[in-house]
Design a protein that fits this description.
With about 80 residues, this protein is mainly beta. It has no helices and 6 strands. It has a domain of about 50 residues. It is about 0% helix and about 35% strand. The chain has a 4-stranded antiparallel β-sheet, with no helix packed on it. It is elongated and about 50 Å long. The model has no long low-confidence stretch (mean pLDDT about 80). The structure holds zinc ion (ZN) (2 copies). One zinc ion (ZN) binds next to loops.
């Protein structure tokens, strides 16, 4: 997973990745497909070589083919510094 800093396009080094997943119940749909909708994802701190810090959330994708839930984007948010 290579992420770029949206400000300077430098490579982001991810630090302190922690899974916040809890209480996720995988289920089978009417067609018998296995779904896992973990909206908690993984949160990490991304730092580029220019010291821009980003809060990064990566959502796990659902293993079912063509599941609409997979369209959910990752969140990338700049951490304001003084
Ligand atoms: Zn940067
Ligand atoms: Zn699904």
């Amino acid at each position: 997973m290579a992420m770029k800093c949206p400000t300077c396009n430098g490579d982001l080094e991810l630090k302190g990745a922690t899974s916040t997943a809890m209480g996720v119940t995988p289920f089978f749909d009417n067609g018998g497909k296995y779904h896992s909708h973990d909206s908690n994802g993984v949160k990490a701190l991304g730092v580029c070589w220019n010291n821009h810090e980003w809060s990064v959330s990566t959502f796990f994708s659902c293993p079912a083919d063509k599941c609409d839930w997979n369209k959910k984007p990752s969140i990338l948010k700049l951490i304001e510094k003084d």
